[in-house]
UniProtKB/TrEMBL annotation:
It comes from the Eukaryota. PANTHER family: NADR_TTD14 AAA DOMAIN-CONTAINING PROTEIN, TRIFUNCTIONAL NAD BIOSYNTHESIS/REGULATOR PROTEIN NADR. Pfam families: AAA_28. Gene3D superfamilies: P-loop containing nucleotide triphosphate hydrolases (3.40.50.300). This is NadR/Ttd14 AAA domain-containing protein. It comes from Polysphondylium violaceum. Residues 11-104 form the NadR/Ttd14 AAA domain.
């Protein structure tokens, strides 16, 4: 998602990360059956480095490519449940975006522009 252009409300410097130690934790558990203590410690020590967590519902049509895993919808749901449960355990507040692609993008933009840190220029 690109937040820039002619609209001044999107001129702040923002970086979007599609992975983090938290995601590594869940993938590790999913792919090899456990997460090392080192990864768990990194998750805890870095969770506050991210100002906003936006998660997309996994209920979209599967499109296979060389970097995607979990083509079975139930497996994606289990992964999603693990992720959201881990957030709750860690006290991470997040926004869960659903709907079609356009709705998700619009909701994400609206959430971002309402953030106190975003409003400060």
């Amino acid at each position: 998602m690109l937040l820039s252009g002619n609209d001044n409300q999107f001129e702040n410097n923002i970086i979007f990360c599609d992975t983090s130690p938290l995601i590594t934790d869940i993938w590790s558990d999913t792919l090899i059956g456990y997460t090392t203590n080192e990864v768990k410690e990194i998750v805890v020590s870095t969770k506050d480095n991210y100002k906003l967590y936006l998660f997309l519902d996994c209920n979209i049509k599967w499109v296979e490519d060389e970097v995607r895993f979990l083509p079975v919808e139930n497996d994606r749901l289990i992964f999603q449940e693990k992720l959201l449960k881990r957030c709750q355990e860690l006290g991470i507040q997040y926004h869960f975006l659903q709907g079609d692609y356009e709705s998700r993008e619009n909701n994400a933009k609206n959430i971002i522009i309402q953030q106190e840190w975003f409003l400060k220029k």
